[in-house]
Amino acid sequence: MSDQPITYASAGVDVHAGDRAVELMKESVRRAQRPEVLGGLGGFAGMFDASALQGMRRPVLATSTDGVGTKVALAQAMDRHDTIGQDLVGMVVDDIVVSGAEPLFMTDYIACGRVVPERIAAIVSGIARGCELAGVALVGGETAEHPGLLDPEEYDVAGAATGVVEHDAVLGPHRVEDGDVVLALASSGLHSNGFSLVRRVVGASGWAWDRQVPELGRTLGEECLEPTRIYTRPLLELVRDLGTDLHALSHVTGGGLAANLARVLPAGTLATVERSWTPPPIFTLVQELGRVPQPDLEQTLNMGVGFVAVLSADRAGRAIELLTGAGVDTWQIGTVSRGGTGEQDGDVVQGAKGVDGGAVRVVGSYPAGVISTQ
């Protein structure tokens, strides 16, 4: 038996540090609000005035939850924590937009081995910035200190969001038609998927995260920490502008472009996608440093395409104009046709993540990209 009294603090939990973290994050959270938010920071539950839903004919709530995977290990290795929160928001709210829904509010959860107020505040500042970009209210969150479960410098983040869409405006496979085109929306880089592969490749290569890479225009770590692009506002504008001519959207996350596109196609359809774009240098670098087979690379990373849209062919020009004007480079990469995969050339993906959807055939070769690994 211990001769000294055992307190919560001696067990490794600093309640006062948590209070200081809340004070430091208040200003960031204030910027990530909407008029419908009721109450303030520190309540037991976030509250959102849902009276606007009374004006909808048949409101459908959409919800999503996610984290950022092992990208947090890179943030910890570089001791930079103000971008990972934007990654979290992007992973959560843009899954909601896939259905055509407008994300309304979000909550976050941070688990750490030790509360360092400045670090927690930096993480939350990124979450708040992401919510601002998406037009989503950050209505609450939780920071939990887990000494003995996580090392003092370790943490993980997760979040959940809720949105709403009219029932007859839900996007998805039921809208996709023969002759539709597939548009690619550029990613901002690696986003938040595949970092187990990326970190393994970098570790095996002997490269340091602070290594300057001329083709990237910055250090390797800075490139890899580039936050996930948030597509919410441009895509909601696309939904409003195109109406029923926009048929499906897909967020290119784990599984890569082909698998995620297949999830939003109806069974019996085939999307033929051409490798007509040059992936940003970071993708070539990962491939060459690790001698990663192309199929494995494409099933793990987004290859420069963070979202895809499926829509009527005669509206493709308008969609490209609107999205490019909003700062998201957009181009056509494929078409959709009725019929099975058949004996086709190219790499075919059919069905993904339990969805009995359509098929995607990827053809051609990427234009050559050169990067030095010496």
TrEMBL record:
One of its GO terms (molecular function) is phosphoribosylformylglycinamidine cyclo-ligase activity. The keyword Nucleotide-binding applies. Residues 177-340 form the PurM-like C-terminal domain. GO terms for biological process: 'de novo' IMP biosynthetic process; adenine biosynthetic process. It holds the Pfam family AIRS_C. It comes from the Bacteria. Keywords: ATP-binding, Cytoplasm, Ligase, Nucleotide-binding, Purine biosynthesis. Residues 60-165 form the PurM-like N-terminal domain. It is found in: Cytoplasm. Pathway: Purine metabolism; IMP biosynthesis via de novo pathway; 5-amino-1-(5-phospho-D-ribosyl)imidazole from N(2)-formyl-N(1)-(5-phospho-D-ribosyl)glycinamide: step 2/2. The keyword ATP-binding applies. Its EC number is 6.3.3.1. Signal peptide: none annotated. GO terms for cellular component: cytosol. It catalyses: 2-formamido-N(1)-(5-O-phospho-beta-D-ribosyl)acetamidine + ATP = 5-amino-1-(5-phospho-beta-D-ribosyl)imidazole + ADP + phosphate + H(+). Belongs to the AIR synthase family. This is Phosphoribosylformylglycinamidine cyclo-ligase. It comes from Serinicoccus hydrothermalis. The gene is purM.
